[in-house]
UniProtKB/TrEMBL annotation:
Role played: Exonuclease involved in the 3' processing of various precursor tRNAs. Initiates hydrolysis at the 3'-terminus of an RNA molecule and releases 5'-mononucleotides.
Name of the protein this chain belongs to: Ribonuclease D
Family that this chain belongs to: Belongs to the RNase D family.
Domain of life, per lineage: Bacteria
Amino acid sequence: MQVITTTEELHTFSAALRDKPFVAVDTEFMREKTYWPILCLIQAAAEGEEAIIDPLAEGIDLTPFLEVLTDDKVVKVFHAARQDLEIFYKLLGEVPGPLFDTQIAAMACGFGDQIGYEPLMRTLLKAKIDKGSRFTDWSRRPLTDSQLAYALSDVTHLRDAYPILKDSLEGRRRKHWVEEEMHALNDDDLYHVQPAKAWKRLKLRGVRPKEMGVVVKLAEWREHEAQTKDIPRSRILKDESIYELARLQPKDAKSLARARSIPSGFERSKSGAAIIDVIGAGITLPKAETPKIDKPDREKVSADVLELLKVLLKRQCETFHVAPKLIATTADLEEIARSDDADVPALSGWRREIFGDAALRLKRGEIALKLKGDSVDIIDV
């Protein structure tokens, strides 16, 4: 097992990877006590090459490997890539590419919604994965042989699974399905929350218009503080506190102390004073600068139409062997129930071919659903 701890070793390994058509990549990280994930290990495997890179090794420069991640001749293979990509986005300032996410590919091949790494590897490779090292502290050194073996197996299995999924997609003519999803992973907002947009992470059901400015400003302040201090958002201010403060809108330390979610004495702290100022800025935020939350009128959704669309979705996904979540969410189905021109992915591209056109025809009464034995069938009306 090769464990890379020097820049020279990494340069040699990375040069070998750049001659390969693809490389499987995984990471081990810690973020329980920080805002930004702490990168503890990088695992990489290609045809005839495999190694663990120790980013915590003294003096190591990750540049040679980061250059592999941006080499457009080498496909980067991940499983459920989002968190790994966040780490590399912070190091690179861009999203690695080209990408192939085996979880998304598996959904397109009919392996179910958001299938986990272990069940997918068991299905494709009959692999037995020792989960004993999963929840260890990856920042502590030295790492044990069992930890290293567990970490490396993540990418060696991934390396073996990639050709199987790739061939399956090509055989089903679904390669472009996954490519479309990979393009969506290039959105910068997935990996870096701009403080001014932090309010979008909150659940705004029940927030009144006059509270929205305070919610926006508190979320912005919290995000900036968390990023600057590199601590979790909840250590700065919990979501429930934002909602409560937006409702109470305290204007001084005494009224801030009355908030149930604020610890005793917090109102006298520097952060307490800052929160009072932020609330004041939120109260005076011009209405034109306050985000408008478009809440759909759910009363207009026909329950019967929605249920029929759910049955049709299940039927189409079983027929075409594709995971339902890759086609449409319940919210998407509600939008389709409301309007034939709904702006949802299910009514465009390959999703429309699989489901969208049939959904609109069902709404118009041009097709019907009937039982055929134990399954649902479509008939023309």
